[in-house]
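ok here's DUF247 domain-containing protein:
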Amino acid sequence: MAFASDEAGIALTEETLASKICRKLDALSAHTSHSYPSCIYRVPEKRRKANEAAYTPRLVSIGPLHRERGQLQGMELYKYRCLQNFLNRSKINLNSLLGFITRFELYVRVCYRDTSNLTRDEFLEMILLDGIFIVELFLENYFSELREGSDIIFNNRWMWSDLLHDMLLLENQLPIHVPEGLLDFVDHSLLKGITFYDLAHKFFKDVCNTEKLPLIESPGDARHFVEFLLIHHSPVRSCGIRPILRAAKFEYTHSATKLRQAGVKFCAEGSCLFNVVFKNELMLPSLIVNKWIETFFWNIIAFEQCGYHSKDITSYVILMDSLINTPDDVVLLVNRGIIKNELGESEAIADIFNNLYKEVVTETDELYFANLCYNVNVYSPDSFHELKSKCFRWRVMLRRDYFSNPWSFISLLAGSVLLILTVIQTVCSILQVK
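and the structure:
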């Protein structure tokens, strides 16, 4: 009897376990069968450890991945105020908004690679509050008359800076179609034809070269703001450059100062990051380097490394990393207009580009600038370019050692005159002896 009882207990345990596994399999099937693949990822641990601050929100949580961080809870009350303002402005009731959000639930869930521990009600509330927060933020940024006089974000520069940082983070995203859809509830007489992407373009105008690049005509394939900015700066969309055949072998170019010593001239041309041309002169786009550029590049690269179909921004970073080894390289590029330095210290810019490529694995055939780097590398070995390089080094040495101040120049001039007079005296003495 005891044996039969044990068998019954084992059978019951197996049945319970099988039931649990089946439920998980059903949930997995529902998740993976949806037509929308995941697009919002946690940054790989090795990459995160290289620069924790570049991936961590400082002020506000968007989406479920950082929702439990205690220091971000203060902004939750602000989100409710945004919801109240939205309801007052749009003359729509809360139930209608919740009905709209509910239709997005499955789509939003599958956009995140990691599963969420939030209950269904908590998850829907998160979608609603974060979506409305983004819409209100964009509207108040575009239409300053909508801001309240005591607004804590637009009246506080450090909060605005932290907020923009947080909106650039790969782990801190909401699928873009949620706030885009919520904007349809706003009175069209206010918008006057302004689209959601017009609002986004202005909001991110200080990030990299966003403001200098025209808004792309059809950015609807962007699934979140990191991808929106990536597409906005991509070679095809920002400057109409089609992907080129990659070289079979890639080698780093020399630094900017070494190329200059070899006779390579530098000039700034355009704003598209991929408008780079080399014909005895290296033409590079002008790049705005400010306090958000590091966050922008770290998160774009992380997104490309997590499975995006191209590695173009990563390629641009590798190119800049190869050109910038020291602050002197930064100074050269600043003087040529290639870098617009809004950080102040050249050493800080050098550190940014020297560290961006840490823990990044990229195949040779994925590098957009491989052929260009090859052409630059083979430019310097011949004797003509070596002679130009030596002449350049002599000019640098003379400028540094003899023309850095008036007394050095006077000493050199006096020494030269004395040498000439000595030679003349020697020649005259020889002629007199003859």
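+1. Residues 45-203 form one domain.
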